[in-house]
Amino acid sequence: MMQYVVRRLLLGVVIISLVALISFLMIQAAPGDTLLARLAQGGRVTPAELEEKRAQLGIDRPIFVQFGDWVGGLLRGDLGNSLIFEDRSVTGRIVDTLPKTLELVILSTILSLLIAIPIGVLSAVKQDGVFDFFGRMFAILGLAIPNFFLGIVVVVYFGIWFGISPPATQPSIFTDPYDNLKAYVLPSLVLGVSMSAVTMRMTRATVLEVLRQDFVRTARAKGLRSQAVLIRHVLRNSLVPIVTVLGNQFAFLIGGTVVVEQIFGIRGLGDLIFTSINSRDYTQIMGNTLFVGTAVVLVNLLVDVSYAWIDPRIRYA
Fold it and tell me: DSSP secondary structure string, 175-215?
């Protein structure tokens, strides 16, 4: 197990390095000039002032020299400062916004499980019945409706019908749990429904496959109750692909909540990614990309390691 984890970590370092290099080159090739746009807000800027500022920030040097300096800072644990907010570090801005996004992602994952697992299992048990028909219809709608459309519909109609609108601020769950959950329930519902569609289809397909296995027929022939067979044998042996899907969705949402955070006014990591791209804050974009890439690698590693706990028959060669 330990050798497998070490190999995966080393492979993850290679993947993250390639992601950082490709992202850096793409950012440098993007049109626009952050420095010129920022300095121009204060009035007319002379070419001499512009060049002086470039030299001060070190962005007048060759691309690979800048990349080498960035990697050197990374090895020292320093991602640099934002080009837009020079007094704010890249790491500090990520740390400030990450808790809101993590809470949103965790609540969305919990809601998706509460929706997807029961519907998926019952659809498989009652295959081709009325419940199965509506369950598959729900999954198709969840896959077909984009997050931005569902989010707008929720904001508009919940406000009209129930007088519920997203609050302007999101207090910490440790200081005001009630207002915190009230602020996150609608965006979590939007993301949870989309996540549950994929998880529900995977749950249904996997449970159907396990129900046809010989050990399930043997368990029933021994006189075990249907609930015991379903929970202790069928569902347990269906968890590996379900956990895989959940892990991939969780990793994707860490950097994929941009649209939902914009709709509901959540100042999380997704909002930071959007604003840094919109303002061409290159150092912040690099920091965001590195963090999201690292999170995806680590989540996938945790998912793979969990297989042995879910199914003791799995061995890592």
Answer: T-HHHHHHHHHHHHHHHHHHHHHHHHHHHHHHHHHHHTSHH
